[in-house]
Design a protein that fits this description.
Elements (H helix, E strand, L loop, with lengths): L2 H4 L4 H14 L3 E10 L5 E9 L6 E6 L7 H13 L10 E7 L3 H5 L26 H10 L7 H17 L1 H9 L18 H14 L4 E14 L2 E5 L6 H10 L20 H8 L4 E10 L3 H17 L5 H14 L4 H24 L1
Helix pairs in contact: 2-3, 3-13, 5-6, 5-7, 6-7, 8-10, 9-13, 11-12
The chain binds zinc ion.
Length: about 350
């Protein structure tokens, strides 16, 4: 089996490859069925494969498809971990937990968001308190979501966006759009108004599988930012925190930090890492996101706008719908052989660094 074979062309194929590889590796499997179906009526689930001793004090967790369609990347790497036998190299007292498809609905429907248009990586906030404000997003929201995708509305919106970028720069626009917002359910990077099915399922899974663990290392896979095929390591802990220092010790100076301003990612709130950290209050956590580049940032943002419009106002099963789906897939899945090999090489090195870090902790 070559690296390319680990990567799939659909959610259903990815799930099949993951389950086959997990069974082949002798993993203990747990499946959490999603209440909705995929576009072809296929079953959706968050699947968990556990390998290693039952009483392990240290666990390496890998997770895919926090952002639905980005799951093509993470799933391919998880299949690679299983097929290449990472579980046979575990240090004593260490287990592996591969969490497949945090957001299976988005993965199957080739969307970044969940079934309720929620960015799962902005959903882990405290909903009993007022949500964070994002006035910069409020300003650009009308341009991101034009009423029609072709014609004067769209042209006016594009012109307004270009004006904003010329005045304040592309990264300022990206930060306004992607920082997360909790006031526009029809918008982009919407964090939701309650915990989604995915959040509730992740919390139940982490609570059941990781409670009492001394140290958890989490690697969450993402795509869509940065140079094509390059995986940027994004630290979660604030600069200067014990977790951030540990992240640098384990993974080296390549680690970037949105808070420090040197990452391709804007500062975001309500992330999945906060979610795992929030559940595992008595557990030491060392979390990292790896963000692989695909296409230039302008194209990725454009694909997200188009997909948002499509699911609000358009028809997926139309010529324009299919065109938009092709665009969003290319924006979040590099797919060709070179990209998959580049992705795997970095993922493989990262998992080994994580195991070494855990062993020395
Ligand atoms: Zn992502």
């Amino acid at each position: 089996m070559s690296v390319n074979d680990w990567f799939a062309a659909s959610y259903a194929e990815a799930k099949g490859k993951f389950l086959d590889a997990a069974k082949g590796a002798g993993a203990e499997l747990t499946s959490h069925p999603h209440p909705l179906k995929g576009p072809a009526g296929e079953d959706l689930a968050l699947d968990v494969a556990r390998l290693g001793p039952a009483d392990a004090g240290r666990v390496l967790v890998t997770s895919s498809a926090t952002h639905g369609i980005e799951g093509f990347c993470g799933s391919g790497c998880q299949v690679g971990f299983l097929e290449s036998g990472l579980h046979r190299e575990l240090p004593a007292g260490t287990a592996l937990l591969h969490v497949h498809a945090h957001n299976p609905h988005g993965f199957a429907h080739q969307r970044r968001v969940t079934e309720d248009n929620v960015d799962l990586n902005r959903n882990f906030i405290d909903f009993s308190a007022p949500p964070p404000a994002n006035p910069d997003y409020d300003e650009v929201h009308p341009w991101l979501v034009p009423a029609s995708w072709e014609g004067p509305d769209r042209q006016a919106a594009d012109a307004a966006i270009l004006g904003y970028i010329e005045e304040r720069g592309l990264f300022a626009f990206q930060a306004a759009v992607s920082g997360g917002q909790w006031g526009h359910p029809d918008g982009l990077f919407f964090g939701g108004q309650a915990p989604t099915w995915s959040r509730r399922t992740i919390e139940a899974t982490a609570g059941a599988k990781l409670a009492g663990t001394g140290h958890v290392a989490l690697i969450d896979f993402h795509t869509g930012l940065g140079p094509r095929g390059h995986g940027e390591l994004i630290a979660v802990g604030a600069p200067g925190s014990a977790e951030h220092k540990r992240t640098l010790e384990w993974y080296g100076d390549a680690v970037k930090s949105p808070e420090a301003g040197d990452s391709v990612s804007a500062v975001v709130k309500g992330t999945i890492e906060e979610g795992y950290g929030g559940i595992l209050t008595d557990t030491e956590a060392t979390t990292i996101a790896i963000e692989y580049g695909t296409l230039p940032a302008e194209q990725v943002l454009q694909a997200l706008r188009a997909d948002n419009w499509l699911h609000l106002h358009g028809q997926v099963d139309s010529a324009l719908g299919r065109e938009i789906k092709t665009e969003i897939r290319a924006a979040f899945y590099g797919e060709d052989k070179t990209w998959c090999e580049d992705v795997w090489e970095q993922a493989n090195a990262l998992a080994r660094q994580a195991l070494r870090g855990l062993a020395e902790s």
